[in-house]
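hi! just following up on the protien thing from before. the input was this:
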Amino acid sequence: QVQLVESGGGLVQAGGSLRLSCAASGRTISSYHMGWFRQTPGKEREFVAAISWTGNRIYYEDSVLGRFTISRDNAKNMVYLQMNSLKAEDTAVYYCAAYYGPRRELVRDGKSFDYWGQGTQVTVSS
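and the predicted 3d structure came back as:
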């Protein structure tokens, strides 16, 4: 089992930055694909970014490309999402997620992710 806890959310003005952190416990994440998703009330959960267990493949949702950066620090068992040039439409609860990586492709589909955190609220004021 992998436990994930997100932090770093908050209220920020449009154009500002936030850095989300995801702390993993229970197992080392070095063999896990990691991802970030977000959800707003009444909408489907949306893929944001994902990084492969090897770190050599990264995907972004089109609307965050060039503004968000996903990274991982296996030694600290942490995953990060650096969010720059934030927009009001980035407002959502952001979730960290994971699934075992070796012999499995990195995907954007949340249904493939087995472990989820509780989420952290990001609110961008315009």
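The CA atoms of residues 11 and 20 lie 12 Å apart.
The mean pLDDT is 97.
cheers
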